[in-house]
């Protein structure tokens, strides 16, 4: 039995200090009805709790730790940067260095603005889309998460297109009424909405590979349909690649599916584990952002030198600049992920447990479902009770997974073949536990 005594005491104390004991809800393990391990440190492919337990980590801080934890090159760069001061609130060359690297890999980004979180990136991209088009409505997809800004905390539940019901107290009806939610992967639903109100829509924002309802891939032709519809109605297409950027493929979902959005939001990875995100895209649109244009957006810590340093060091490794010498980092991650998922599928089948396994590059996940999962409704219909049993059985065996079926898992360059074999062996026992329910 996993000993989590110290973590339990730390959690009890934290609950007196922070809402639910955490600074971001999913960390509370509420959805799996157990206490979270409190983390002491992480190195490479492993994460260690304050009780001394070691886990193979497939959460990777929810995506950014693509080169593994505390990679020596990232740590060295950060140590050097820290001796030069932690923040200036003034321009630096490293902001341009990171911008250039990101734009090389994402040619649709002709101008970029660095911010501090994915929430800020999407919120600012929407303000820009509204400022640029002079329109007020936005369209999002049910089950896609774009951070917690008011206009995007509108969801409306599954089913048909619904107009503006806030999904959190504190989001005003006025804000919510400009957000239209439509089911993901449903060409008819989005076509109908655009036919009805497309000329009032500033932007359609989508997770082109959806990672916040579990991992759900776009159907063939779906992203092209969104591109065509937005073009037809003069609305902007915003790809929120905060999670799938540098993950679905090196060039993100836009490269993997060959679709060029007007604006892209990136996050997580481009800060290598420090708080960074960005939005960018067509030059003529980005020219509206202050101070070159009238759409206001700012940040005291935006472009922070430590955060830029960690991001640059991380991206240099995965984009295989000659100095780092890896042939194709993304491809290697994709192959490792495939191996792991094949193993899981085999063990699930042998145990007689129906799963749907999804992969996009180095992102992966499974659903306990007989039928494929194409949208939020399908994801909600997958068996959450089975997930809880599976999750706990994996944790007991030292495999650290996201504590909710509505999340995605991530492979890193630090994961070894031995990790993958161990994770497949653990899955065999965890599927047996599910089968015995
Ligand atoms: N967009 C997507 C697709 C995300 O996955 C997330 C966070 N998981 C966000 C936006 C918000 O990013 P942050 O938590 O950095 O505000």
Automatic annotation (TrEMBL):
InterPro entries cross-referenced by the UniProt entry: 4pyrrol_synth_GluAld_NH2Trfase, Aminotrans_3, Aminotrans_3_PPA_site, PyrdxlP-dep_Trfase, PyrdxlP-dep_Trfase_major, PyrdxlP-dep_Trfase_small
Highest taxon in the source lineage: Bacteria
For this UniProt record, give its keywords in alphabetical order, as a comma-separated list. Answer: Cytoplasm, Isomerase, Porphyrin biosynthesis, Pyridoxal phosphate
Pathway-wise, it operates in: Porphyrin-containing compound metabolism; protoporphyrin-IX biosynthesis; 5-aminolevulinate from L-glutamyl-tRNA(Glu): step 2/2
One Gene Ontology molecular-function label: glutamate-1-semialdehyde 2,1-aminomutase activity
* Cofactor section: pyridoxal 5'-phosphate
Q: Which family does it belong to?
A: Belongs to the class-III pyridoxal-phosphate-dependent aminotransferase family. HemL subfamily.
Q: What is this protein called?
A: Glutamate-1-semialdehyde 2,1-aminomutase
Originating species:
Selenomonas ruminantium
Q: Which gene encodes it?
A: hemL
């Amino acid at each position: 039995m996993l000993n989590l005594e110290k973590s339990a005491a730390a959690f009890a104390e934290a609950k007196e200090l922070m809402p639910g004991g955490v600074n971001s809800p999913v960390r509370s393990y509420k959805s799996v009805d157990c206490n979270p391990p409190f983390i002491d440190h992480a190195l490479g492919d492993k994460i260690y709790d304050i009780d001394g337990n070691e886990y193979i980590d497939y959460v990777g801080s929810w995506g950014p730790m693509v080169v593994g934890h505390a990679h020596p090159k990232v740590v060295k760069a950060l140590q050097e940067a820290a001796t030069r001061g932690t923040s200036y609130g003034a321009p630096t060359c490293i902001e341009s260095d990171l911008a250039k690297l990101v734009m090389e890999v994402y040619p649709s980004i002709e101008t970029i603005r660095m911010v501090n979180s994915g929430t800020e990136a999407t919120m600012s991209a929407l303000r820009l889309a509204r400022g640029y088009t002079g329109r007020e409505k936005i369209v999002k997809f049910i089950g896609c998460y774009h951070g917690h800004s008011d206009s995007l905390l509108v969801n409306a539940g599954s089913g048909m297109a619904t107009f503006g019901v806030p999904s959190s107290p504190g989001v005003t009806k006025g804000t919510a009424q400009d957000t239209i939610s439509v089911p993901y992967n449903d060409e008819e639903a989005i076509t109908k909405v655009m036919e009805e109100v497309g000329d009032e829509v500033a932007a359609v924002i989508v997770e082109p590979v959806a990672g916040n309802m579990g991992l759900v891939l776009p159907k063939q032709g779906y992203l092209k349909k969104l591109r065509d519809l937005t073009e037809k109605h003069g609305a902007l297409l915003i790809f929120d690649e905060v999670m799938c950027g540098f993950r679905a493929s090196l060039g993100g979902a836009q490269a993997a599916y060959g679709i060029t959005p007007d604006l892209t939001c990136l996050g997580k990875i481009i800060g290598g584990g420090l708080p960074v995100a960005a939005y960018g895209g067509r030059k003529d649109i980005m020219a509206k952002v202050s101070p070159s244009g009238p759409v206001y957006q700012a940040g005291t810590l935006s472009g922070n030198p430590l955060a830029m340093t960690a991001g640059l060091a991380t991206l240099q490794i995965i984009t295989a600049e000659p100095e780092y010498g890896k042939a194709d980092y993304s491809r290697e991650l994709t192959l490792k992920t495939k191996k792991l998922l094949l193993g899981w599928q085999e063990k699930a089948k042998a145990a007689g447990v129906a799963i749907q396994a999804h992969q996009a590059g180095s992102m992966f996940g499974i659903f306990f479902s007989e039928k494929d999962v194409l949208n939020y409704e399908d994801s909600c219909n997958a068996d959450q009770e089975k997930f809880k049993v599976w999750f706990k059985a994996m944790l007991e065996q030292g495999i650290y997974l996201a504590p909710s079926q509505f999340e995605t898992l991530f492979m890193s360059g630090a994961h070894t073949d031995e990790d993958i074999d161990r994770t497949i062996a653990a899955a065999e026992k965890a599927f047996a536990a599910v089968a015995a329910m």
